[in-house]
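Usage

Read records sequentially. Each one opens with the input sequence:
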Amino acid sequence: MLKPSLIALTLTAVLAGCSSTSNSMAGSSATAAVAKDPAARAQQLAQQMLIVDTHIDVPYRLQEKWEDVSVAAPGGDFDYPRAKAGGLNAPFMSVYIPSSYEKSGGGYLLANQLIDGMEALVGRAPDKFAMAYKADDLAEHFKAGKISLALGMENGTPIDGKLENLQHFYQRGIRYITLTHSESNHISDSSYDMRRKWKGLSPFGEKVVAEMNRLGMMIDISHVSDDAFYKVIQLTKAPVIASHSSLRSFVPGFERNMDDAMIKALAKNGGVIQINFGSSFVVSQANQWGLQFRAALAAAPKGTDEKTFRAEYLKQHPYPFANVDTVLDHIDYVTKLVGVDYVGIGSDFDGVGDSLPDGLKDVSMYPNLIAGLIRRGYNEADIEKILSGNLLRVWRQVEAQAALQQAG
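and closes with the structure output:
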């Protein structure tokens, strides 16, 4: 017979055990509920996994109209609270240089100013952001609860014909360079420019590819002409990236996107295509809308205000936005064509204006994409590859190739 005190202790233990069992069952039920709910699981994964987005145009956005993105900001597609809500750990901030600087000069100065702006952002909020200079920085910053700011330069114009400028920008933190932009420059022909001066890369552009390999900079083939792409693939000793491109299969005739043969060549090289979210990159109807609008604007009377004209045009011709599923179609296509190891995300947030898809309007909405991947049957290992693993693999291979060349 137990003493009253022991009876009390035993009852307490039994009750505690029941409570523990009850809590365990409740926990199991909650876990099961999450497993059955892609949206809930996506929210969890967004916070647990590294998310690397290789193209966000914050630097130039702030150059045009400054606001403090370390707190909630009224404009644009990115700020700290929205990035945290969406699980974004490592945006590559695009040091974008307009093509006009190729002729006017000043690209080198502007690039440095845009880099200064990102360093200043980290300086204002060192508890929220940290500059990322190597692939391993991302996991360290994630562990510390900080968002990594990596830098990519969109348009090689600031190199200004001097290989020493590549060294300078590497030292300043640039880890990829998009060789050209909307017009051909002194490095490469552009997919948007009908004048194909170089039939691919210039002689200096070939030296740029070699030097980027040596330094450990990823080569970005978004925006380049098809001939330039194949020349890069022929010359490079390291994998390359398309930092913000989608698939020509869905938007026929749009050379800015990649066709199937290019994607296969990219995969053989070990590179990765980072899917652009912009509606005109993702669905043909939106791409055609843009062409039709520009034709209508060109036919309008001289002096027509573009903003007013566009507002009226939209009333008669609503914009055919892409959506989460149409973006996922591009990821599916790459996966079926060459495998899941060669695709990632390069949203072009703050770079494609108001053409972003329904459900992917800003950096808080990555969970919508993740939920879609879950619904389409992607396992969590493959989701992690798409969100960051594939890009990190390429970045580490580029670092390793540079170390090998520098050691030799």
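Summary fields computed downstream for this record:
- The first strand starts at residue 52 and ends at 56.
- The CA atoms of residues 401 and 407 lie 10 Å apart.
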